[in-house]
């Protein structure tokens, strides 16, 4: 089997993902990075993918999200939330990229992207050149451009959600926005990478995809909406629509070899930047309990964590 771990975007909702991954490592007694041939992550999932590949445990990453998440996504009063919405609509990003950079630097340190201990693909979008861009470890002779990019810069590039964080530079090259605008659920990115560049047969590919929770989603009330009424709802629409399409396409192609861990939450229960104590605690508990369900445990432990990868990745 060629095993791929794919981690969705979703801001502070990455607590759910981190908790699920931490419980998998605890159940199996093994590191995820040793059991997957390729790891893909977008936005908050990209941060988690980078952390795992740089040697951090999922438990370490969960602690980071739980402890530092409230600083990255500070709680706001009703007046502050209203001011933040006005800023998003008319003035600029709602949150500080500088704070995010400081916090990420505490865990990723000064490591370079090329130091990853696993093959990585991290989607983002180059706003200057107007094209998609994927940061890739040198797991193919052509992939040499990103080796010396600071891991922190890659994390900032993939997680610069429009209207929430300003676009980020990476090694002083380009201006990047959140990969979620085209690959919020990066399952197809991982699938194409394996087939087109690593020359893996489709029949050998197995994917474990972990979400950040979802909720019933509808745009019926916006069927005749103006641009102003749409406001930040457009960001949610991009993320939701892409994820649904990518998961459906991948499921068809893999014919039962895609396993998805996620949770359907009540409407408005969680959001990308809602990092209050209760939300973080609930996301943690949901991640733990969801992955412990028999429908997930049996598949994950038997098919993904039963043995390490046959060929350990080593950067050239």
UniProtKB/TrEMBL annotation:
Source organism (scientific name): Bradyrhizobium erythrophlei
Positions of the catalytic residues: 43, 178
A single GO BP: lipid catabolic process
Record motif DGA/G, residues: 178-180
Span of the annotated motif GXSXG: 41-45
Keyword Lipid metabolism: yes
Keyword Hydrolase: yes
GO molecular function, one term: hydrolase activity
PNPLA domain mapped to chain residues: 5-191
CDD domains (alphabetical): Pat17_PNPLA8_PNPLA9_like
Keywords in alphabetical order: Hydrolase, Lipid degradation, Lipid metabolism
InterPro entries in the cross-refs: Acyl_Trfase/lysoPLipase, PNPLA_dom, Teg/CotR/CapV-like
Record's protein name: PNPLA domain-containing protein
Placement of sequence motif GXGXXG: 9-14
PANTHER family: INTRACELLLAR PHOSPHOLIPASE A FAMILY, PATATIN FAMILY PROTEIN
Pfam short name (any one): Patatin
């Amino acid at each position: 089997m060629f095993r791929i771990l794919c981690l969705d975007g979703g801001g502070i909702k990455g607590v759910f993902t981190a908790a699920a991954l931490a419980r998998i490592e605890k159940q199996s007694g093994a590191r995820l990075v040793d059991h997957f041939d390729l790891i893909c992550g977008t936005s908050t999932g990209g941060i988690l993918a980078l952390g795992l590949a740089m040697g951090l445990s999922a438990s370490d990453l969960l602690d980071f999200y739980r402890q530092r998440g409230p600083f990255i996504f500070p709680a706001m009063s009703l007046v502050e939330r209203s001011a933040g919405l006005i800023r998003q609509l008319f003035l600029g990003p709602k949150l500080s990229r500088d704070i995010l950079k400081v916090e990420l630097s505490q865990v990723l340190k000064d490591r370079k992207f090329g130091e990853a201990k696993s093959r990585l693909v991290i989607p983002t979008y180059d706003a200057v050149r107007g094209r998609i861009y994927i940061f890739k470890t040198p797991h193919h002779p052509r992939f040499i451009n990103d080796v010396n990019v600071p891991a922190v810069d890659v994390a900032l590039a993939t997680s610069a959600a429009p209207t929430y964080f300003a676009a980020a530079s990476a090694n002083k090259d380009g201006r990047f926005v959140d990969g979620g605008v085209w690959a919020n659920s990066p399952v197809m990115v991982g699938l194409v990478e394996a087939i087109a560049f690593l020359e893996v047969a489709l029949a050998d590919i197995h994917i474990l995809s972990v979400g950040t929770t979802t909720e019933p989603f509808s745009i019926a009330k916006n069927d005749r909406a103006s641009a102003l009424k749409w406001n930040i709802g457009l960001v949610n629409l991009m993320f939701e629509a892409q994820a649904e399409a990518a998961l459906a396409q991948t499921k068809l192609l893999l014919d039962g070899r895609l396993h998805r861990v996620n949770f359907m939450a009540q409407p408005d229960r969680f959001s990308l930047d809602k990092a209050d104590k209760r939300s973080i605690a609930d996301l943690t508990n949901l991640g733990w309990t969801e992955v412990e369900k028999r429908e997930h445990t049996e598949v994950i432990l038997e098919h993904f964590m039963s043995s390490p990868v046959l060929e350990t990745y080593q950067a050239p």
